[in-house]
Write a structure and sequence with these properties.
25% helix; alpha+beta; single chain; 6-stranded mixed beta sheet; globular
Length: 201
C-alpha cells in the first residue's frame, strides 16, 4: 500500500482555487473538507440568527457576515472558515483585504467565532482553540450537537455539548452546557439560549 501525502497549498493558491467554496478551509497547507450537512447548516444558521438578534437588541456596532475567512498572521498557509463569525464594524477599516475579499487578518476585528462540530472534531477542540486564543478573540463557541468530540473534551458518556470558551489572560476558560442547561455568554449577557433551541429537527 502506498501512502499519498496530502496536497500542500499556499494561502494564495487556496484563495484562487477554493476561496469562494464554503466547503473548504486550509490548515497548515492542508485542504480540509468541512463536511457540511443539512443539520450542520441548520444549527449554524440558528446560532447566527440568535447572535444577530442580540446584536440588534443591544445596539452593538457588529455584523455577522454570511461567509468569511480568517488568515492568522502567524500562519502562512492557514485560512480558517468559521461557521459563524461576529465582526466589529469599526475595525473593518483596518483590514487590508476586506474591501476586495471577505478575509480578516486582525484578531481585534473579531468579537466571536462559533464552530459547529463535524467528524473532523479535532480541529475545533484543539487546533482552533489555540488559533483563536492567539488572535485574542474574546469568545469561541463550540456546538457539538451530535456529541462527536473526544471523551477528554465532552466527557463520558458522549452527549450533545455546547462549549463556551472565554478568553482570560490569553487562555480560554471553557464551560460546557448540555441539553436543558441555560447558556451564559459574557459577550452577550442578555442571551437566552439552550442547546435544545438550536438542535436540528
Amino acid at each position: 500500500m502506498t501512502y499519498t501525502p496530502p496536497k500542500i497549498l499556499s494561502f494564495d493558491k487556496f484563495i484562487t482555487e477554493y476561496g469562494d467554496n464554503t466547503r473548504y478551509e486550509l490548515i497548515d497547507g492542508e485542504l480540509r473538507d468541512m463536511e457540511p450537512t443539512g443539520p450542520h447548516e441548520a444549527v449554524a444558521g440558528n446560532i447566527a440568527g440568535r447572535i444577530y438578534v442580540e446584536i440588534f437588541h443591544s445596539n452593538f456596532n457588529w455584523i455577522v457576515p454570511k461567509t468569511c475567512l480568517i488568515k492568522p498572521p502567524a500562519a502562512e498557509a492557514t485560512a480558517l472558515r468559521p461557521d459563524v463569525i461576529v465582526l466589529d464594524k469599526e475595525q473593518l477599516a483596518n483590514e487590508p483585504l476586506w474591501q476586495k475579499e471577505p478575509i480578516i487578518c486582525n484578531g481585534n476585528t473579531i468579537k466571536l467565532v462559533a464552530e459547529v462540530v463535524s467528524t473532523n472534531w479535532q480541529d475545533d477542540y484543539a487546533r482552533k482553540v489555540e488559533e483563536y486564543a492567539f488572535l485574542d478573540i474574546p469568545e469561541y463557541w463550540i456546538i457539538d450537537f451530535r456529541g462527536l468530540g473526544g471523551l477528554q473534551f465532552i466527557g463520558n458518556p458522549k452527549q450533545p455539548t455546547f462549549t463556551i470558551c472565554r478568553l482570560v489572560n490569553g487562555v480560554y476558560e471553557q464551560r460546557q452546557y448540555r441539553l436543558g442547561d441555560p447558556i451564559s455568554s459574557y459577550l452577550l449577557p442578555n442571551l437566552r439560549l439552550k442547546l435544545d433551541d438550536i438542535m436540528p429537527t
